[in-house]
Specification:
about 280 residues; alpha/beta; four-stranded parallel β-sheet; two-stranded antiparallel sheet; 8 helices; 8 strands
């Protein structure tokens, strides 16, 4: 209902005022979609950049191997079978995701989901997925945010791919945002024990969290972005403990983290402690 009202309000606003690009804010004709040609081209270009199939890092082709890249093959915590990512965290992608997360812009969610659908369809494991599990938001955090961005993305991706949205995990502990934490160790410590198996939630197709219908299923975690992988790996722990056969992840952006091999992607924002000082920086 609320989504319908938001869509109606957006339509009335577009009829009364010129539409702006969701990434750069320039005025664009309503019939041109939600992004200007330049922003659309750059965001789509990121889909073609070589990335590790196991962890989603954007890397030079020579750094990517069948079993993963040099980084994720040494990360013993890595418990997802593969990651689909739509792009890096460049200026346009940052604007797209920040407006979704902190302003609840529905148009951004739809466009970001389109990018994510394209990224998932490129994966060899796309046909294995049986359900989408958005990273859950604690109810206190939900009071502070205009929307549940992971759920919005998962809903739109699910419609496009014909997959059910399933609530298998709930957030049981409210923690400080990952934004600004100085190290990978701090990020993992911050989310450790934050998630637990969940029951049903009205409006979502649900599998019993510890029942036979979960055991043997292949689930894909959905979120807006991934930096260290702490949040996704912690959610994957719960899914694996519940009996999931295989766990994948789909994220709109995977920023370059400190220590990653350099890429040729100009304008990408590497996210370290300094880059995360602002309120709109990533938190995964």
């Amino acid at each position: 209902m609320f989504a319908t009202l938001r869509g109606l309000a957006r339509g009335l606003l577009d009829a009364a005022l010129p539409q702006t690009c969701i990434a750069c804010g320039t005025w664009i004709p309503a019939e041109s979609g939600v992004a200007c040609p330049a922003c659309r081209a750059e965001l789509l270009l990121d889909l073609d950049r070589p990335a590790c199939r196991r962890c989603g890092r954007t890397l030079p082709p020579e750094a990517i191997h069948p079993g993963g890249c040099a980084r994720c093959r040494t990360e013993h915590f890595w418990n997802v079978s593969g990651v689909a990512r739509a792009g890096l965290y460049g200026k346009r992608m940052r604007s797209l995701l920040v407006d979704l997360k902190h302003r609840g812009d529905e148009r951004n969610g739809v466009f970001a989901a389109e990018l994510l659908v394209a990224a998932v369809r490129r994966q060899a494991w796309a046909a294995e997925i049986e359900g989408l599990a958005p990273v859950p938001m604690h109810w206190l955090r939900r009071l502070q945010r205009p929307c549940d961005h992971a759920r919005i993305l998962a809903e739109h991706v699910g419609r496009r791919l014909g997959l059910p949205l399933v609530r298998l995990v709930r957030r049981v502990r409210h923690t400080p945002s990952q934004t600004g934490l100085p190290s990978k160790h701090a990020r993992f410590a911050n989310v450790r024990g934050c998630f637990a198996p969940a029951g049903g939630l009205r409006g979502l197709a649900t599998w019993p969290a510890r029942g036979p219908r979960v055991r043997g299923r292949t689930v894909c975690i959905v979120d807006n972005l991934m930096l260290s992988g702490a949040t996704v790996c912690e959610v994957a722990k719960v899914l694996r403990a519940a009996g999931a056969r295989r766990v994948y992840a789909a994220v709109v952006a995977r920023p370059a983290a400190p220590g990653d091999a350099p890429t040729s992607a100009g304008g990408a924002i590497g996210v370290g402690a300094d880059a995360e000082a602002g309120p709109a920086a990533p938190s995964a």
